[in-house]
Write a structure and sequence with these properties.
Chain A is α/β, with parallel strands linked by helices. Chain A is built from twelve helices and eight strands. Chain A has helices at about 5-15, 25-40, 45-60, 70-85, 115-125, 145-155, 170-185, 200-215, 230-240, 260-270, 290-295, 300-309, and strands spanning about 100-105, 130-135, 160, 190-195, 220-225, 245-250, 270-275, 285. An eight-stranded mixed β-sheet of chain A has the order 3-2-4-1-5-6-7-8, sandwiched between helices. In chain A, α3 (about 45-60) packs across α4 (about 70-85), α4 runs antiparallel to α12 and α7 runs parallel beside α8 (about 200-215). The longest helix of chain A has 17 residues, at about 25-40. The two termini of chain A are about 20 Å apart. In chain B, α4 (about 60-75) packs across α11 and α5 packs parallel to α6. Chain B starts with a helix and ends with a helix. The chains are: A alpha/beta, B alpha/beta. The interface between A and B is large, with 47 and 46 residues. Bound molecules: guanosine-5'-triphosphate (2 copies) and magnesium ion (2 copies). One magnesium ion binds near residues 111, 137, 187 and 190 of chain B.
């Protein structure tokens, strides 16, 4: 058993070295190893299929046969293809022409929404904004307290008129939160919402009602990088249920390959804006498609691999 | 699309004589989509093809039945899935509460599961105490305290954030002993398995607790939406704290939780409970047959 795709590909490439062009069998071997790596990285089955057929096509086309040796070319194709799907350039947060900008967070239970609210608050403040966090998760035990604590850590005020733990109306809280921001000149509002499942029609409706009450400029779908094949079903359910404008991949400080990024991008076409990389409020960065590509494939430094091939 | 009774009979007749490559592919896809994993799926497919050849079956439905059988064997209905929740006698010959440690990566449902388990044990007339050894996550102890109120059991917590979690766990078990409770459930902070420092801290929590009373169970809480990384989680947590059981949470969603099949096999440790929602009663014993049926449905 080889540890990673780079090991596996390197081994294959050894046998390819010296060949002028790739035979169909060479391509099949390589493609099947790439398929396996993608599946091990939790890339969605349909996305894997689309991906391998694109690689197969490009690898057998005229494109292969010039400067680089065939092995190098396949690695290059794979990498380019991944980066392309992952979104090429990463988009910036869209701010409203007339403040306040409203950013709503949505996602499954435990994905990292509340932590992200704190991170966004801190980041926005450092960027010179005056953010307000809104506690619209009134369901999960002590979600309000949790937001108050992260708000305190970030030095950002929290709108929390209801105690939560089942008491209060989250739609009302979101609405009054934005009104309060408008009145007090906060220029960005981050609305934290309860975790919900894609199949929970009632809660999905609630999310849609929150959305309609505050008209968000961005709806960020927060998703755990460890998620498996359910990424597609869930992303689709959120896309249909509330709609989202961007994705945040959380817990990227773990050792999950994070194939979900590829799946969600393929299925919904929405860009990944941020990576959440730890429990501290500073563990937050812009998303880098190129880094993600080599992480998903477990290829380490792709350029080095190309040189070695 | 459904083709109706007549249509599907026709289809079956047409496919008689051989199971088409498309049928095989569909079966393989079912397994992959359930997060069984590429490796185990290959193994299952090979076993399945062999058995189908030997049996000479040509009916795709029957093939699925065989697959169900194979999966059920893997999941192993004969494993002992009972919770070790009875007081134990320690090395000192004294009775001690059963101590149960809840561990896992961030956000899987540890705290919620502690609350649900407490509810279950209380319903069985046991005296339970909770220990809030997550002193790190914002409002984690408050969250556990709310669960304690909900299910009517006392909670031992530190009066300050960032206290030594091992000390809180120690205090909880000590308090449980002194109060003569049957079970102490210790909630711990979520930690990613690749963080050596945090894993060391968890090892220490267990060692310190074991000084008070033998640890009866270490339950690893796995989120059903987790993909192949679940295996790494299981391996590392098992290494550090010797996991005795698995709780598979969030099975009320669309995720199948297939990773536990490989995890059970690798660790030789059973899934004991499944989480089916956010409420206090949304915890059920693991049912191998129901689980397998859902995997291949
Ligand atoms: N290691 C790591 N942990 C994270 C990250 N983001 C969040 N967490 C942790 O994941 C757990 C869940 O995070 P929350 O922010 O409470 O998630 P949530 O989506 O608000 O959860 P619910 O409100 O219950 O749906 C907590 O233990 C966080 O500290 C991250 O990027 N890395
Ligand atoms: N739908 C569903 N949600 C669950 C289940 N178990 C827990 N949750 C939810 O998942 C989220 C995280 O649960 P917690 O119990 O806080 O998870 P944790 O492992 O203690 O999280 P950290 O301590 O931050 O690592 C909360 O919103 C819970 O309500 C379950 O079985 N089904
Ligand atoms: Mg939250
Ligand atoms: Mg917890």
């Amino acid at each position: 058993m080889f540890a990673s795709l780079s090991d596996r590909l390197s081994a294959t490439f050894k046998s390819l070295r010296g060949k002028g062009r790739l035979s169909e069998a060479d391509i099949e071997t390589t493609v099947s190893q790439i398929r396996r790596a993608l599946l091990d990285a939790d890339v969605a089955v349909p996305a894997v299929r689309a991906f391998t057929s694109a690689v197969r096509e490009r690898a057998s086309s005229a494109e292969v046969s010039q400067a680089l040796n065939p092995a190098q070319q396949i690695v290059k194709i794979v990498n380019e293809q991944l980066i392309e799907i992952l979104g090429g350039e990463s988009r910036e947060v869209r701010f409203a022409k007339h403040p306040p900008t409203v950013i709503m967070l949505a996602g499954l239970q435990g994905a990292g929404k509340t932590t992200l609210a704190g991170k966004l608050g801190k980041w926005l403040k450092e960027e010179g904004h005056t953010p307000l966090l809104v506690a619209s998760d009134l369901q999960r035990p002590n979600a309000v307290t949790q937001l108050q604590v992260v708000g305190g850590q970030a030095g950002v005020p929290v709108w929390a008129p209801e105690p939560g733990n089942g008491v209060g109306n989250p739609i009302e809280v979101a609405r009054t939160g934005v009104a309060h921001a408008r009145e007090k000149y906060y220029d960005v509002v981050v609305v934290d919402t309860a975790g919900r499942l894609g199949v929970d029609a009632e809660l999905m409706q609630q999310a849609a009602d929150i959305r309609d009450a505050v008209n968000p400029d961005e709806i960020l779908f927060v998703v755990d990088a460890m998620i498996g094949q359910d990424a597609v079903t869930t992303a689709q359910a959120f896309a249909d249920g509330v709609g989202f404008t961007g994705v945040v991949l959380s817990k990227l400080d773990g050792d999950a390959r994070g194939g979900a990024a590829l799946s969600i991008r393929t299925v919904t076409g929405k860009p990944v804006l941020f990576a959440s990389t730890g429990e501290k409020l500073t563990d937050f960065e812009r998303f880098h498609p190129d880094r993600m590509a080599s992480r998903i494939l477990d290829m380490g430094d792709v350029l080095t691999l190309i040189e070695q091939a | 699309a459904r083709s109706g009774a007549l249509g599907s009979t026709l289809l079956r007749l047409l496919s008689r004589g051989d199971i088409s490559e498309a049928d095989w592919e569909e079966i393989e896809e079912t397994l992959l989509l359930a997060d069984i994993g590429a490796g185990p799926t290959d193994e299952l497919m090979t076993a399945l093809r062999t058995r189908v050849k030997v049996l000479g079956t040509t009916d795709p439905e029957q093939v699925r039945d065989i697959l169900r059988e194979e999966l059920l064997t893997l999941v192993d209905p004969d494993m002992d899935r009972r919770l070790a929740a009875s007081p134990v006698v320690g090395d000192d010959g004294e009775p001690h509460p059963a101590t149960i440690l809840m561990v896992g990566v961030n956000g899987t449902g540890k705290t919620t599961t502690v609350g649900k388990l407490a509810r279950l044990l209380v319903a069985e007339d046991r005296d339970v105490l909770l220990g809030a050894a997550d002193t790190f996550r914002a409002a984690a102890a408050d969250q556990l305290a709310t669960w304690g109120e909900r299910v009517g059991v006392p909670v031992v917590r530190s009066d300050r954030d960032g206290a030594d979690p091992a000390a809180v766990a120690f205090d909880a078990v000590k308090a449980g002993r002194e109060a003569g409770v049957d079970v102490v459930l210790v909630d711990t902070a979520g930690r990613l398995q690749n963080k050596a420092g945090l894993m060391d801290e968890l090892g220490k929590i267990k060692r310190v607790v074991a000084r008070q009373a033998p640890v009866s169970e270490v339950l690893l809480v796995l989120d059903a939406t987790t993909g192949q990384n679940g295996m790494r989680q299981a391996q590392v947590f098992a290494e550090v704290v010797d996991v005795t059981g698995i709780v598979l949470t969030k099975l009320d969603g669309t995720a199948k939780g297939g990773i536990v099949v490989a995890v059970q096999r690798e660790l030789g440790v059973p899934v004991k409970f499944v989480g089916l929602g956010e409420g206090p009663d949304d915890l059920a014993p693991f049912d191998p047959k129901g689980f397998v049926d859902a995997l291949v449905s």
